[in-house]
Write a structure and sequence with these properties.
The structure is a single chain. The protein is 5% helix and 46% strand. It is mainly beta. The protein has one domain: TolB, C-terminal domain (Neuraminidase, 6 Propeller). Strand 8 and strand 9 form a beta hairpin.
Amino acid sequence: MPRSCIAVQVFVLALLASAPAMAQPTTGRPTGLFHHVQCEGIYPKHLQGICTDEKESIFWCFTDVLVKTNRDGRVIKKIPVAFHHGDLCYHDGKVYVAVNLGKFNELSGKTANSWVYVYDAANLSELARHKVPEVVFGAGGMGYHDGRFIVIGGLPPGVEENYAYEYDDNFSFIKRHVINSGYTLMGIQTAKHSGGCWWFGCYGKPAVLFKTDESFKLVGKVNFDCALGIVGLADGSFLVARGESLVGKKYTASLFVADVDAEKGLVIREGQQQ
């Protein structure tokens, strides 16, 4: 094996070893309230993201339809929403969705129209809209932790880093964080905080999962698909979303329980039908 390949392998292994949540397997631990489930219904556009209220409800965003289900995937409420609603997060009885009404991934940064829409988690009634113009390549996803919202989005080809935009509870802009992830296809699609780290799902062939510490320093990057949704669970495992394309350009989606793996980052738990 060439010395350059050996050096790369050593670097990757060191990178994974420095990521505590990726280095402590959780296989076999109970998942608590949430479990493998399929979302009831068929939708005209594909899934963009998921979140839960950590108790009894799952929220699914199918690009132009926002859906609330119970833990078993039964629909409680669904509403039409503007194209393009992306990844979403839950906080204090509300669901927050990253929305772009313009174009994604344009290098000029002048064609995006980035917002955060806020919905009542109980009945999905719209409560507010917050403009987030700092997300210049198009808002596509978001997460919440410790009094701060993090919004992520598109990325033009050739830009070799991603960005996380930090806002306070009133959506006053605080800071743009640079993530030295290298280029990822169309930027970052999903973002969630869990286990003291931020987890980011990206498109690609193969799809990419990377994680950072709380200062957005890259601590791990692996090939794993959670570009349609990821949620950390209390026991250290995760829910990850996968979509299915049906005949006639219709879509459905399911959630799978995934466990941390020292080499692969996350792995789908055995016994779940895919």
